[in-house]
Amino acid sequence: MNFEISQIAERIKGLRQILEISIEEMAEATDVSMEEYIQHEEGVEDYSFTFLYKCAEKFGVDITEIITGENPKLSFYEIVRKDEGMPIERRKGFKYQHLAYLFKHKIAEPFKVLAKYEGEIEDDDIKLNTHKGQEMDYILRGSLKVKFDNHIEVLHTGDTVYYDSGHSHGMVATGGEDCEFLAIVMKEKQAEK
Q1: What is the model's pTM?
Q2: I want to staple 72 with a disulfide (CB 3.0 to 4.6 A). Which of 40, 104, 162, 192 is the partner?
């Protein structure tokens, strides 16, 4: 078992137990079967970003805490120098750099994402995910084939898409080269009191 995966698994299991959340509740919150959830919690399965994001949401913690075991500490500002974001490789073919991993109480999760071009999957059905909130993706270089429910769009350098991430969505690099983009994942708006 990968050491990093086993540490994330321990943190997820520990948080679930401390918060007295059932496995059934977590499976439902993360949109996986109970068997899949148990495999994730035991460190048998690697984690997608969406799975970790949904765990963090359910536990009421920052995603950084699940990935690293550390709580973000900054509350005024944070500077992340070029290529120094917290690396997250939680999905085959995608490399994320978290661009505000030390900032606490974020209303958005900003990432620079590199989607590797894999010609053999370019025309396959795109794996879809959902998570609460909204997302904005801005293409820095390359092209990205994006599927929203049953709609397919191709974005190119300089294009932006903003969407309700509660709808199914997924993406792959297209056009024969890697695609780099900024992804800003915004949490679901809290009801006003």
Answers
A1: 0.82
A2: 104
